[in-house]
Amino acid sequence: MKNLILVFLIFTTLSIQAQQKSGAQQFWDSLKQHCGKAYQGEVTQGITDDFKNGALIMHVKSCDDGTIRIPFFVGENRSRTWVLTFKNNRILLKHDHRHEDGTEDKVTQYGGMTTNSGQAGIQIFPADQQTVDMLPTAAGNVWWITIDKDLFSYNLRRIGSERVFTVKFNLTNPVATPKAPWGWKE
């Protein structure tokens, strides 16, 4: 009987702790489960010529306590990395763009911070002031990332325009990890 009570207390404590995690923390924990893995994706909305030049691969390459870096490859183009930073129950999304020699592109580090803790399966990032100052036309940009057990999606919508972009990645089928993104040292 004592063992049964002990098991019940442990289960109840773990259940309460899981319920106390914010949407942002649950999202973060889900994403961290994919550290070191790469997945192939496809554009499902807003196909542009830039994304027709080879396989689309995301690689959850680097996971530190407060930062997750996800290079996004388009064929041989290794210029893009999504950088997510977790702080104060919010998540910041930045886009790190590099040239082949590793130097920063002139348009880089744009993105936004979630306005609340979000939900376990979705985080929404409206354009921040740094983005608006750099790219005034991006003032209406809203990015969002979704994740569940089968799918990761990266999305962009420019409010007030027809611009929309979605790329989805199958999380049930890891692929070979690609070379390092431009600017990274192995």
Keywords:
186 residues; alpha+beta; Lipocalin; 11-stranded antiparallel sheet; 3 helices; 11 strands
What can you tell me about this protein's structure?
- With 186 residues, this protein is an alpha+beta fold.
- The protein has one domain: Lipocalin (Beta Barrel).
- The protein is built from three helices and eleven strands, in the order H-H-E-E-E-E-E-E-E-E-H-E-E-E.
- It has helices at residues 2-20, 23-32, 129-134, and strands at residues 38-45, 56-59, 62-63, 67-74, 77-87, 90-97, 110-113, 122-126, 141-147, 151-158, 164-175.
- Strands 1, 2, 3, 4, 5, 6, 7, 8, 9, 10 and 11 form an eleven-stranded antiparallel sheet that branches.
- The longest helix is centred in the first third of the chain and has 19 residues, at 2-20.
SSE diagram, text form:
Layout: H1 2-20, H2 23-32, E1 38-45, E2 56-59, E3 62-63, E4 67-74, E5 77-87, E6 90-97, E7 110-113, E8 122-126, H3 129-134, E9 141-147, E10 151-158, E11 164-175
Antiparallel strand pairs: 1-2, 1-11, 2-4, 3-4, 4-5, 5-6, 6-7, 8-9, 9-10, 10-11
Protein name: Secreted protein
Keywords: Signal
Organism: Pedobacter cryotolerans
* Poorly predicted runs of 5 or more residues: none
Mean pLDDT equals 91
Largest β sheet strand count, sense and barrel closure: 11 strands, antiparallel
Q: What portion of residues is helical?
A: 10-25%
The termini sit apart by 55 Å
- According to DSSP, the number of beta strands is 11
Number of helices: 3
State the CATH topology.
Lipocalin
Structural class: alpha+beta
Label the CATH architecture.
Answer: Beta Barrel
Count of all domains: 1
Radius of gyration: 18 Å
User: Helix and strand string, N-terminal first?
Assistant: HHEEEEEEEEHEEE
CATH class: Mainly Beta
What sort of overall outline do the alpha carbons produce when their principal axes are compared? globular
Work out the strand percent. Answer: 35-45%
